[in-house]
Amino acid sequence: xxxxxxxxxxxxxxxxxxxxxxxxxxxxxxxxxxxxxxxxxxxxxxxxxxxxxxxxxxxxxxxxxxxxxxxxxxxxxxxxxxxxxxxxxxxxxxxxxxxxxxxxxxxxxxxxxxxxxxxxxxxxxxxxxxxxxxxxxxxxxxxxxxxxxxxxxxxxxxxxxxxxxxxxxxxxxxxxxxxxxxxxxxxxxxxxxxxxxxxxxxxxxxxxxxxxxxxxxxxxxxxxxxxxxxxxxxxxxxxxxxxxxxxxxxxxxxxxxxxxxxxxxxxxxxxx
Length: 272
Prior knowledge:
By secondary structure, this protein is mainly alpha-helical. Helix content is 61%, strand content 4%.
């Protein structure tokens, strides 16, 4: 992947969001930063987009030894739920090959300015720019080009959800709540998404409406049947007393009718 080192800020220890993670998990700064190092190093090795398929919040808690760490990362906006697993928010700004390249260039420019600018500047002709000025401009042009390449995908993500008719087996309130959730996540609403949700609800042995209600309660961008907790799954239906009585009565009627048919077919039986 991107390499054998990752970028971490020197003032991360005093970041208010790290303090928030400490409060949410009741852990020390050293423990939290150690957990962040594992998460970011793992993402650097296994993804180029920030999406880590198959990784769950429970796995993050287990691997870091910090209960509730995954949910806390989502709460402060450093991690997001994803249909395939989890997604590191703003991954490409701080990790990956392009982020490391920007970091190395900035460091090289800073070292050049502090160590060589005074020696190099007088030796250059007046009509030419100095090396110390050329390097920052070159880096700025590179970042502008990268920003242009990233602009089109960002515009696609900002598009509102598509207009899809409400399924007949979902009430208006549940449908409106689910659409509002998708809009807040800047996630599209398409026929493919609806078919996928219906398939997952069938796996969970739930109606589509019940599945969407759990989805809204969770507030996540995606939901799969395997992610459901036991308390979110439907309980087995237990027939009530009236239904049991009606079932016994129907069985008795069926038995009586069968005996009547048999007696009519037997010529040796006289029915007065």
